[in-house]
Amino acid sequence: MIHHNLLLVIDDDLTLLELLSEHLIQAGYRVVTAVSGSTGLQAFNLYHPDLIILDVMMPKMDGWTVCERLRRTSDVPIIMLTAKGEEIDKLRGFRLGVDDYVTKPFSFGELTARVGAVLARARPTTTSPHRITSGDLTIDLEQRRVTVAGRVVDLTPTEYRLLEVLAVRANRTIPAEILLDEVWGHPYVGESEYVKHFIWTLRKKIEADPGDPKHLITERGFGYRFE
Questions:
Q1: Sign of the C-alpha dihedral computed for residues 133, 179, 177 and 95 taken in this order
Q2: 68: Cβ–Cβ under 8 A, 6 or more apart, which residues?
Q3: Could you tell me if 88 and 161 lie in one domain?
Q4: Last residue of a domain, one of 99, 122, 145
Q5: Are residues 118 and 135 in the same domain?
Q6: In total, how many domains does the chain have?
Q7: Is residue 108 part of a domain?
Q8: Which end of the chain is more exposed for a tag (fewer CB within 10 A), N or C?
Q9: Under a CB-based contact definition with an 8 Å cutoff, are residues 53 and 23 in contact?
């Protein structure tokens, strides 16, 4: 099973780095590794990977800083590795544009499943109308581009996919569980906080007043609807 996707793994733990890349190569990916935040950023500029696996806790430059720098120029999918028991501010990560978290110790199978799911979200999937408009918001499904009043909005692959899934079924309330399954994939069943966080980050980007949304409506106890 060859994917041809190039993954960049950034972690200061050399043993884990070696095991991880072996496993990901066996799963059919091409892998580049980096042992620090700064060499990770250099590798990113050099190789332009399709996805980054990034450890939160690293000396000198931590995962948050690396993520912040990457997001200035790129919407490459990012999976954060966090240690069990680490007080992790997931909300902060979602705000920075992290696509997913995997907690150590993890099984390589679980990580590989998450990599596949995140990459699948970044791929175009549309067979629907090419453009959806609501007020001054336009979603161009062919170009995967979202504009508000003519200004392009930068969305991460996950944010875009969530908006696309909702917009294609405009005016229908979709339960969080179904959104989880369609946007994040099967390994995420039950993690409805993901949906909540990403609806929130989307509102901040596309709503005139995120506190009084006109496009992304919450139906308490039922799910979410795109108007």
A1: negative
A2: 96
A3: no
A4: 122
A5: no
A6: 2
A7: yes
A8: N
A9: no
For 62, the token pair is 């931590």
**CB count, 10 Å around CB of 144?**
18
Residues 113 and 154 in one domain: no
Query: Using an 8 Å Cβ cutoff, are 134 and 49 in contact?
Result: no
- Does residue 114 share a domain with residue 15? yes
pLDDT at 129 over 80: no
Q: Position 56: which residue type?
A: V
In contact, 207 and 214? CB cutoff 8 Å: yes
Instruction: Name the pTM for this structure.
Output: 0.60
Q: How far is CA 29 from CA 5, 40, 44, in A?
A: 6, 18, 16
Q: How many Å separate Cα 141 from the centre of its chain?
A: 18
Q: Are residues 136 and 111 in the same domain?
A: no
Question: Which CATH number is 70's domain given?
Answer: 3.40.50.2300
Amino acid at the residue 215:
H
**C-alpha separations of 116 from 14, 24, 33, 66, 197 in Å:** 23, 11, 18, 22, 21
Phi and psi at 36, nearest 5°, equal -155, 165
| pLDDT higher than 90, residue 216 | yes
CATH number where 193 lies: 1.10.10.10
Q: What is the pLDDT of residues 58-102, one digit of tens each?
A: 989 999 999 999 988 888 999 999 887 666 677 777 778 888 888
